[in-house]
DNA sequence: TGCCAGGCCCTCTTTAGGGCCTT
């Protein structure tokens, strides 16, 4: 089996739906190679309009910070270079995928070929007793040290990456968590909760 | 005019509704 390098990413945005006109205002991402974070990406993006007071308060990203930030036409090509053709992970990946697709669609000659896996869906199988599956709560549940501020893109992507590695460690039958193929995590996210153990027994040979 | 996200997942389900998660 090969070591699975993945890019864990997180968007801060003006709202919940690119279909309703919402835009990305920050991208954060880290690369995981052989169970270690080996590279980082963080850029603000000027969304072309003011963000709401709610978003300023929620993310700490203010209109004055975004005023001189580069537009997506400058940031997305750099982000495409960062993610290359690696597979991608995000917490509630359907959200980040919609914004990634929308911002790439605005930028000609950019895109990605990797597949997405979702740490939220995986965590609902692996940490079935967690009181909630919000990122911050899962980080505490898994005893992952955290000292930064959630709701910033790079910090959330780093915490998601550490959660991802903790989940790999939880299910890996061997010490080398890179033995857990990306596709197994993708499939695990769709397995009925009461079938998780038998799925892992079959695919990985037990906990 | 009035609406306004989308997908997963559970249940008092499947001819549906509502909570969870992301900003």
Account of the protein in words:
- The chain has helices at 53-59, 63-67, 72-83, 93-105, 119-126, 135-141, 153-171, 182-188, 196-204, and strands at 6-13, 24-33, 36-44, 87-90, 116-118.
- It contains nine helices and five strands; from the N terminus they run βββαααβαβααααα.
- The mean pLDDT is 93.
- A hairpin with a 2-residue loop joins β2 (24-33) and β3 (36-44).
- The chain is 42% helix and 16% strand.
- The chain has a five-stranded mixed sheet with strand order 3-2-1-4-5, sandwiched between helices.
- It has one domain (6-204): 2-Layer Sandwich (Nucleotidyltransferase, domain 5).
- The chain has 207 residues and is of the alpha/beta class.
- It is globular and about 50 Å long.
- The structure holds one DNA strand of 23 nucleotides.
Short structural summary:
This protein is of the alpha/beta class.
Which key features would you list for this structure?
207 residues, alpha/beta, Nucleotidyltransferase, domain 5, five-stranded mixed beta sheet, 9 helices, 16% strand, DNA-binding
Structurally, the number of domains stands at 1
H/E topology pattern = EEEHHHEHEHHHHH
Q: Numbering strands along the chain, what is their spatial order in the largest sheet?
A: 3-2-1-4-5
What is the tally of beta strands?
A: 5
CATH architecture: 2-Layer Sandwich
Topology:
Layout: E1 6-13, E2 24-33, E3 36-44, H1 53-59, H2 63-67, H3 72-83, E4 87-90, H4 93-105, E5 116-118, H5 119-126, H6 135-141, H7 153-171, H8 182-188, H9 196-204
Parallel strand pairs: 1-4, 4-5
Antiparallel strand pairs: 1-2, 2-3
Helix pairs in contact: 5-7, 6-7
The protein binds one DNA strand of 23 nucleotides through residues 10-20, 22, 25, 54-55, 58-59, 90-96, 98-99, 118, 120-121, 124, 132-135, 151, 193.
